[in-house]
Design a protein that fits this description.
The protein has 583 residues and is of the alpha/beta class. The chain has a domain at 471-571: 2-Layer Sandwich (GMP Synthetase, Chain A, domain 3). The chain is 30% helix and 25% strand. The strands form 7 sheets. Strands 3-2-12-11-13-14-15-16-18 form a 9-stranded mixed β-sheet. Strands 19, 20, 21, 23, 24 and 25 form a 6-stranded antiparallel β-sheet that branches. A 5-stranded parallel β-sheet has the order 5-4-6-7-8, sandwiched between helices. Helix 4 crosses helix 6 (114-125), helix 5 crosses helix 6 and helix 5 crosses helix 9. The longest helix has 17 residues, at 81-97. The two termini are 37 Å apart. The structure holds adenosine monophosphate.
């Protein structure tokens, strides 16, 4: 067990004093207190759009920027809370005029355009369900998801529509309307122009009473095998978004916040739309894809104070020979968080050296709807650990085996499956149309996350791997992350993906796929050096026996290394569902 700590938050992090004593805050915490933060709808109930936008627009924050949009072509647009209220009201009226109502699924297939953010709030206002898809999906994953989600309407752009959706229309009989963001005029009764519809719509909209349990968002998650699952979320999830915005992301009224995630992934909705606006803070949206220089410029020019990103992006920044602290003015930046994959200790240290701040890891998943485990700004960071459970979240490690009936809580330091006590407000309420699959996620009153982890004597959680990624080699259980992290300590290694390769003697042997940093070339010498490096650091039982160089590792669109795909390719097996593979 590693116990390397980064002792305290840097000077300029204004921490929440009540979390300085985490233990005390954890035990005193009550969800009822969070309920007091919300205004509630005048018509009754709780609606995301009202709490995130309208109540600020009706109050002191009306003229404050809610959204600062940075277009891929260099354009910059600002939208105040008042404008967001009006524009989203228009969009809600558009939906009404199209006969799209409560519970109806509205899909979106666009890059991060302002119209998407306006539509998202409008969809919540109309009590319809937002179903955001990655714009880069090809026709097959689009069709699968829209069918499964019973798509009634779709918001997209002309180019995406022509290329990917028009050929599918016959297979989507339930789809009543396609709204094209950039079409000047309606094409037909079915294919409509957003601007024409918005021009006719009123900017006043009274939100109907909304039950906190009404469905708000449907996200699709791939899983390792089989068809993607439709993960159902509800309006009440804002309790978790508000609370984690305050205690993990440490949002204060004057913050400028940037979340780099695309809304096709849950981070891009929970924390790319909802959490910052619940706190009434300015949300930066960058339309363009990753570009290191542009990213540093955004941090500098927009004076970003809180930055929420992902290990894949951090690793890409680490690959380059830029020195952001020297080359850019990052004085405003005070907190950096990361989610989505294990954050290698190397990356946390890189943050300290190159950004002047440690990077705080946190853990959650599509099903949990919000952050569950985190390294709080006010707490020491334990390098390589995911952190401590959030207030109101009960996380445990359990050992279970349905065939033998074993079910027990793991002891400190003992590996097992990470499980969470149901009842946190942003918990998924089901897999759409798959009740049995949903029920299988629970055992003896606990939600099973599918991740292996352990808890140390300080109460910090450590990620080992997805249960289905674990390697069994000569009787040892090896978590790929541990091996990847070690390999990344070598100066030549930019990324590593580790799998178990079937072996007649050992069961499996550890094999590593490695992408090198700029300036390094694959060679037999380097391969041997890396094998030796692994042995020396990890011991012969755990170190990779085989190393293969690749210029880039296959990743999901949300940036996770696809070990499952590396393994299928290695073994010449079918690649399974690769709809989320980034090309
Ligand atoms: P998704 O539902 O696509 O967001 O994926 C969730 C999964 O990503 C989790 O179950 C973990 O396997 C992984 N994950 C997310 N955050 C972390 C983290 N901080 N450390 C390790 N794994 C993570």
């Amino acid at each position: 067990m590693k116990t390397e700590w980064i002792k305290k938050a840097p000077e300029n992090v204004s921490v929440r004093p009540n979390l300085m004593d985490y233990e005390k805050a954890y035990h005193a915490f009550k969800w009822e207190d969070v309920a007091l933060q919300f205004q509630g709808l005048p018509s009754g109930g709780l609606n995301i759009a009202h709490e995130a936008i309208d109540r600020h627009a009706n109050g002191a924050l009306a003229e404050k920027n809610a959204l600062v949009w940075l277009g891929a072509d260099g354009e910059r647009r600002e939208y105040t809370f008042a404008q967001m209220k009006q524009e989203s009201a228009r969009f809600a009226n558009v939906l009404q005029s199209l006969g799209v109502g409560k519970g109806d699924r509205v899909f979106t297939l666009t890059t991060r355009l302002p119209e998407f953010y306006i539509a998202a709030i409008g969809i919540f206002k109309n009590c319809s369900v937002l179903c955001p898809l990655f714009a880069q999906f090809g026709p097959e994953p689009i069709l699968q998801r829209m069918k499964k989600g019973d798509a009634k309407a779709l918001l997209t752009t002309r180019a995406i529509f022509e290329k990917k959706v028009r050929p599918l229309l016959d297979e989507l009989p339930e789809l009543q309307t396609v709204i094209l963001i950039d079409a000047p005029e309606d094409e037909s009764g079915k294919i409509r122009s957003l601007s024409a519809l918005m021009a006719q719509a009123s900017d006043l909209f009274e939100i109907a009473p909304t039950d906190p349990e009404d469905m708000s968002i449907l996200h699709f998650t791939s899983g390792t095998t089989g068809m993607p699952k439709g993960v159902v979320h509800v309006h009440k999830a804002i309790y978790m978004h508000w609370m984690s915005g305050k205690y993990v992301l440490d949002m204060h009224p004057d913050d400028i916040y940037w979340c780099t995630a695309d809304p096709g992934w849950v981070t891009g909705t929970s924390y790319g739309i909802i959490a910052p606006w619940l706190h009434g803070i300015t949300n930066i949206v960058n339309e363009a894809e990753f570009d290191a220089k542009r990213w540093y410029e955004i941090l500098q020019n927009e004076k970003v104070t809180i930055w929420y990103t992902a290990p894949t992006a951090i690793r890409r920044l680490m690959r380059l020979e830029l020195d952001p602290l020297r080359e850019y003015d990052l004085a405003n930046l005070r907190l950096v968080h990361s989610v989505g994959e294990p954050l290698n200790p190397e990356a946390v240290v890189w943050g300290v050296e190159k950004l002047g701040l440690p990077i705080h890891d946190n853990w959650w998943q599509t099903e949990t709807g919000g952050i569950m485990i985190a390294n709080f700004a006010s707490q020491p960071i334990q390098l390589g650990s995911m952190g401590l459970p959030l207030l109101g979240v009960e996380a445990v490690i359990i050992n279970h085996d349905s065939s033998s009936g074993v079910f027990e809580m793991a002891k400190t330091g003992q590996k097992g499956e990470l499980a969470i006590k149901p009842g946190w407000p942003s918990m998924f309420r089901g897999y759409l149309h798959e009740e049995e699959r949903y029920q299988k996620s629970f055992i003896n009153g606990w939600y099973l996350t599918g991740d292996l982890a352990y808890k140390d004597e300080y109460g910090y959680f450590w990620f080992i791997g997805r249960a289905d990624d674990i390697i069994k080699t000569s009787g040892h259980m090896v978590g790929p992350f541990e091996v990847e992290s070690t390999l990344m300590e070598h100066p030549a290694v930019a990324e590593a993906g580790v799998i178990g390769k079937p072996d007649p003697v050992a069961g499996e042997v550890v094999k590593a796929f490695i992408a090198l940093k700029a300036g390094f070339k694959p060679s037999e010498e380097l391969r041997k050096e890396l094998i030796g490096f692994g042995r020396q650091k990890l011991g012969a039982a755990v170190a990779p026996k085989e190393i293969e160089f690749q210029s880039d590792l296959p990743k999901t669109r949300s940036g996770k290394i696809m070990r499952r795909l590396l393994k299928a390719r290695e073994m010449g097996l079918p690649e399974g569902d690769i709809s989320t593979l980034e090309h």
